[in-house]
Amino acid sequence: MQSRRNFLKTSGGLAIGTILIPRFAYTGKVKDVGVQLYSVRKEMLADAPGTLKHLAKIGYKELESAKSEKGNYYGLQPKEIKKITQDLGMKLRSGHVLINNDWQRSVDEAAETGQEYLICSSLPTNGQTVANYQHCADIFNKAAEDCKKVNIEFGYHNHESEFEKENGQVLYDVLLDRTDPKLVKMEMDLGWIIVTGNDPNAYFEKYPGRFPLWHLKDMNKEKKQSTEFGKGGVDITGLLKSAKKSGMKHFFVEQEEYTNTAFESLTEDYNYLAKLNM
To answer: Which among 245, 183, 180, 178 has a CA at the least distance from the CA of 214?
Structure first.
């Protein structure tokens, strides 16, 4: 299985009142469901407009892109994907990129799309050490300043390796402790943190409000693979009830492996959420 972390390296490099989180707190139903477009990576590369239309038909309202071999928007120009999604009644909220030689271009393109977040999806330098994570945290602080200039929020998305330790210190915690909480946000991948044996709620308690974005996924814990909602070992409903504590504003369904096809899996995931009564 090729993880998205490896893919990226090889390809280039609930609230009450007015709190801004998905609006299922108002009606008891999950609304404004988002999807990470890596879930349909092959389909996006083959036919980006058609794939977006299919996702809209399923019911997805919010989107997060991911860097591909055709660039940050699957061969579409920033203004193109903005118009396509608007015409479909969708909103491109966020995008995954790398911090590399194309960083400033990624920032400028994100500003063109009108998206609100730009997320680093893999550490900019290698090394499972406290020293490297401190170095990466300093890079993140600078990257967040770049994003702030164009009214975009910067964040980092975890995989499983961030929860390894050096001399008893959790490396992910180094990022949280060393980055400026006013500038650097975290997009928590709930599936990956859970398969490491860690509890997302412990992080929501220790670092309240630091996680405005989520990747929501179910996981086969034994295989360490994503699966359709309700088929794995992740308490989807319980996690959604922690949204306010975490500071979550938007979540994106992400599925990297499928029982049948990507569209069938994402339809199943959407229908599972639509049936929930919070």
So the answer is: 245
Strand intervals (E) in 107-151: 117-120
pTM for the model: 0.90
Length of the chain: 278
Q: Which two tokens stand for residue 169?
A: 């210190």
Our separate counts of H helices and E strands in the chain read 13, 12
Which ranges of 101-229 does DSSP label H, i.e. alpha helix? 103-113, 130-148, 171-178, 190-195, 200-206
CA 142 to chain centre: 21
What dotted CATH number matches 4-13+44-217+240-259?
3.20.20.150
Residue 218's SS3 state is strand
Mean pLDDT over 14-33 rounds to 54
Sequence spans of domains, the chain: 4-13+44-217+240-259
What is the reported pLDDT for 4? 54
For the record, the structure tokens of 57 come out as 């038909």
